Amino acid sequence: MFILNTLCEISPDKLPFTWLGLCLQEPMALVTNWLIALTSVYLYFQIKKPYSNFRSHWRKFYFYFAISTFFGGLGHLLFNYFDVFGKFPCWFFGVIASFHAGKAMISVNMLTTSLQRKLTILLFLKGFILFVIGVITGEFIFIMIDAILSYLLFCLGFGAYYWRKGYDSFKFTVYAVIILFPSLFIFLLKLNPHLWFNKDDLSHVLMLLTIIFFYIGIRKFTKFESQEFKPLN
C-alpha cells in the first residue's frame, strides 16, 4: 500500500512514503528521472544509420544518459537505504554520457585529427578526475562541474563555432545548453518552486528539454552537411 507522510525517519520535505514495507522518498524525482530515461531510450532508437562518428557518439550519449537517469531515480527513491552510495551509478554513467556528448561535437571533420585527439584526452581526464573526487567527497557538485564543462565548452562552444561557419543545425545544440544552464543556479541557490516540484524536479525538466533539442540538432545535421566540413589548417 502507498502511504504518504509515514513515521519513517525521513524529512517531510523529501515526501516520505511506504510501499511494500519500505521507507521511500522523493517520488517526483523518480518520475522525472525515469521520464528522461524513457525519452533517452526513444531518441537512441531514432538515430538511424548510417552511423557516422557524430551520430554514433550521440547515440551512445542517449544510451548512457538513459542508464544514468534510471539509476538516478532509484538513488533518490532509496536514499534512506543506500545514502549517497546509491547515487554513484547515476554519476558514473552520467560522466560517460557527458564524454560522448563532447566527443560527438569534436568528431566532425572540421577539426584536425591531432586536435581531436588532444580534446579527447582532455574529455577523458576531466571526467575521470572529477568523478573520483565526487566519489571520495560524496559531493554531486563535482559531477555537475564535469557536465557543465562538457556541455559549455564542447556542445555550446563548438556548436556556436560551427553555427557561425554556416551550419545552422548546430544552433539547436546551442539552444539546448542555454536551456540547461539555469540548472546550475537552481541547484546552487536551492530554488524549490513547490514541495511536490523542487529544485531537482525543475532541473530534470530542463534536462528533458535539453536532450530533445540535442536530438533536433542531430536530425538536422544531414549527411550532405557532414560531407561539406573541411579540416582546419
Structural features:
70% helix; mainly alpha; 233 residues; 3-stranded antiparallel sheet
SSE topology:
Blueprint (H helix, E strand, L loop, with lengths): L2 E2 L12 E3 L2 E3 L2 H20 L6 H25 L1 H4 L5 H19 L6 H25 L3 H24 L6 H10 L1 H7 L10 H22 L2 H6 L5
Antiparallel strand pairs: 1-2, 2-3
Helix pairs in contact: 1-2, 1-9, 2-4, 4-5, 4-6, 5-6, 6-7, 7-9, 8-9
Helix proportion range: 55-70%
Strand content: under 5%
User: Quick one: overall form?
Assistant: elongated
Number of discrete helical segments? 10
Describe the main β-sheet briefly.
Answer: 3 strands, antiparallel
Instruction: Please mark out the parts with pLDDT under 50 across 5 or more consecutive residues, or reply none.
Output: none
Main sheet: which strands, in order across?
A: 1-2-3
SSE class: mainly alpha
SSE ordering: EEEHHHHHHHHHH
**Average pLDDT, all residues:** 87
Q: Kindly, what is the distance between the CA atoms of the first and last residues, rounded to a whole number of angstroms? A: 65 Å
What's the β-strand tally? 3
- How many domains? The number is 1
Q: What's the Cα radius of gyration?
A: 19 Å
